[in-house]
TrEMBL record:
One of its GO terms (cellular component) is ATP-binding cassette (ABC) transporter complex. It comes from the Bacteria. It is a peripheral membrane protein; Multi-pass membrane protein. This is ABC transporter domain-containing protein.
Amino acid sequence: MTDLSWRLEEIRVCAAGERDKTLLTIKEKLVFKEGTITLLIGSNGAGKSTLLETMAGLRKLNEGEIALGADNLWVKKGRRRLLSRSVALNTGIALQHSESQWFAATVKEELLYSLKPYKLEPPDKERRLQEALQAAGLPAELLARDPWSLSGGQQRRLALACLLACEPQWLLLDEPTAGLDAEGISRLCAVLAAHKAAGRGAVVATHDPGALLPLADEVVVVVDGSVREAVAASAWANAHAADAAAPQALRALAKLRCFAAPPPGAGAAVWPAPQALAAAIHAAAAALPGAAALPLAAPQAPPAMELRPSPGADPTAANASPPLPKPKRRQLPPAQPEAQRLATRFDPRALIAAYMLLAASIIMQHSWSGLLLAGALAGAIWLPLRAQMRPWLGFIRAYALIILLFGAVAGAQIQPLSFDWEQSARTMLRLATLFCAMLLGLPMLLLMTPLRIQRALEQTFGWLSRFKVPISAITLTVTLIFRFIPLLLKEWERFAKIAHARGKAITPVGSLPLSMLASAIIPYIRAILRIAEQMAEALEARGFGNSEIRSTQGFRLRFGRQDVLLLAGAVFGAALLYVAALF
């Protein structure tokens, strides 16, 4: 019998479209043995979910190799890397947020969708469906319900039932105890025990190891995206037993002592004097990323300790290792994320005016030389934003192929059979001109937030409200359009993840297979309508449409030096394009 153990070697996973932003690393080798249960322990954002999604093929693997038994997770076919179908069928993942995987109209349809890739006969489907419901503790009466209408705990149980119906060799569970009551946790433990007794394995990310630790064989700690070596669950439990049993005050004292090295020398006090402690805290805080240089009130004593854990320090020991050398001050990171900084850099009115000038000049072009100049201008604008605009590259490539296709169709002549190159070139030139104007507009989504667009429209055209022009309704509509576009893209990404996690699609990450496209259209439209309904309810709750409520403004937009330079550059670029259009 083939050994179906996981093997992960020298793994590196980066954020989508950002190779310089590492989310997960495994420096050497990590093995999850067949027939065992492994718990993933770590703080929020440590990388536990990323590890599970990478094993399930929901995230792109930038470096390293993952294999289940003798099969690699990703198989190279030509220039594409496709997910191994055998690995996908042997793996079932329950995402951290259960509601992110629902798209069908009823609970029964959700269960049947999970079973579809296994090509079972109707009697087998019904048997597995009923057994999965019973094991998860869900009554059969829920089969006709909308999954979104279930409670949080019921949705968590339904996610488990969708996995159990497939009978995979491996379960990848992300926070399975969240939202469950005592009975639900007891059922989950029983399910995992039966799964393990059948010779199958599970990897479980959890913040509540106490409930699942008796079933676990190993524990893996994930810290800041780095996956540590697996340790036996019994050893991990023994190491933390005293800490877990101690009162909260004693546990806090133990952690403080772990970070405190008392002054060296015989007869030294366990804790330093207040002045020395304050100086040490100041020195340690100044070394943290993002810490500002804060003045320390005098008088102050030289630091007698560093508030950093010493190698091999015992949390319960009164004495610890000698003080560590003072760490070097680190360079401060930017106060805002890059995307947020870009979105608040320019006044939307300046951006819109600049775009209208350049787009109008681009559309005027009627020669390939003018189009080349317009493309160079658009490329110069794209260059500093290339990292943020990388998710659009697939769309751009598809549009470029459409231009070539339309050019070929326009130039084809049937009677007589020939090809009109001039007609083809004119068609491609016109489409490419529109394409260039569109490329220039894509960064607008990045450089403006919906709220700033709304404020720009209100400040520019607000005076028209005196003449009964519904400016508020118009600005709200424009704002909702800009908010809705990212939601549409995000919802499509959710459907692509469902296709891989539950539909067992083997296409590259983020893409929806053509075979699933037809069956996804109607659920996708239904999901969009649900989002629209939720948005309408949110607007109503906030008082939009109530004329008796007077709106307030948290900030006002003002033109700055960068806005003037932007408009000056746009005028110069438009003048160049206008001159090019004359020839």
